[in-house]
Design goal:
By secondary structure, the protein is an alpha+beta fold. It is built from five helices and 13 strands. A seven-stranded mixed β-sheet has the order 7-4-10-1-11-12-13. The longest helix has 17 residues. The termini are far apart. The relative contact order is 0.23.
Length: 217
């Protein structure tokens, strides 16, 4: 199983991005995991949530090094039940670069992945997420659309974006708590997509607001 994200990184800073894993209704038993990022990766963490409450992390590497990647096996297997959420967060350090870094397969690009060892086997091989376009537009104070992506305008805009004038904390917060598009790719070639909060703190806050409004009116 692969959990990951699509994103771009501004130069001279690090912005967290994350992915969400969709589970089969019967749940899975996890034996261990392997984190994967590229040259800018510094900290990777797999967070585990159940009913909006955070459980002990499924794994964390606060000193991630691209040259030292290996599977981490648990002493005790971890059960992930239906309705649980796993969020993979990556922190990057791009202060040595003066250009925008994109997500991709090259080691000069970036990734944020977690490979899980688990059973029983699922007919699914990947679950990835990306912030919605309106979230990206609002965060960067631009008017991006999917048309821009198809025409290649989005990449050009990000390459020429003035990151020195950007509020990195605001951008990170927007991406962290904004809506994401999550895509689950099944082993039979079927793709299933949903929209939602990638961060349980955001979903919990939204649930509290709705509860207060419903009970106030």
């Amino acid at each position: 199983m692969i959990i990951g994200s699509s994103y771009s990184l501004d130069p001279n800073s690090g912005v967290m991005v994350w992915g969400v894993m969709a589970l089969p209704k019967d749940g899975i038993q996890v034996l261990g995991l392997l984190f994967h990022a590229h040259l800018l990766g510094r900290h990777v963490k797999a967070r585990h949530f159940r009913k909006y409450e955070e459980l002990p992390p499924l794994g964390e590497d606060a000193n991630y090094d691209f040259n030292y990647q290996e599977y981490r096996y648990y002493q005790d297997e971890v059960r992930i039940f239906p309705g649980d959420q796993v969020t993979v967060e990556c922190t990057y350090d791009s202060r040595t670069r003066n250009f925008t870094t994109f997500g991709g397969e090259s080691t000069r690009e970036e990734m944020c992945l977690a490979f899980f060892l688990y059973y029983p086997r699922m007919e699914r091989f990947a679950s990835v997420s990306v912030p919605q376009f309106d979230v990206i537009s609002e965060a960067l104070r631009r008017n991006f659309t999917k048309v821009d992506m198809y025409r290649g305008n989005l990449e050009e805009e990000l390459l020429n974006y003035n990151w020195k004038m950007a509020n990195v904390d605001r951008i990170e917060k927007a991406l962290r708590f904004g809506l994401h598009e999550t895509h689950c790719y099944f082993g039979n070639g079927v793709k299933n997509s949903v929209s939602g909060n990638c961060c349980c703190e955001a979903a919990k806050a939204f649930k509290i607001i709705v509860y207060l409004l419903e009970h106030h009116y």
